[in-house]
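Task 17 of the worksheet. Students: predict the tertiary structure of the chain below and write it out as structure tokens. Keep your answer in the requested format; marks are given for formatting as well as content.
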Amino acid sequence: MLARMSEPLDPEDRKLITLARSARARNGVPEGAAVRDETGRTYVAGSVALPSLELSALRTAVAMAVASGAKSLEAAAVVTEAQAASPEDRAAVRDLGGASAPVILAGPDGTVRSTVTAG
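Model answer:
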């Protein structure tokens, strides 16, 4: 896990944060997430909290990518009040062949708090 807060944010990664913020606001959920696959397609999700199913926003976005045929991930972003991406969220990104993919954590206002690799 490698922090990379000092590097400037790539415009495509900034787009992931914007999409994640939109999902969070639109759905009124605690977390929003977006991932980008190896072809540049993006998948956006909010956290899921049902009596029989609970998923973080990032794990939901990864599941959507897998269900759509993605082979690997280039980057992921989570917008949340939390101070760190969970190990389970990073593992989901890593499992889809994204061990070197950055996982960007941003606050609800879009301010980047940290960037770590999934691996």
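Marker's comment: Helices lie at 11-27, 57-67, 87-95. Residues 11-117 form a domain with the Cytidine Deaminase; domain 2 fold (CATH 3.40.140.10).
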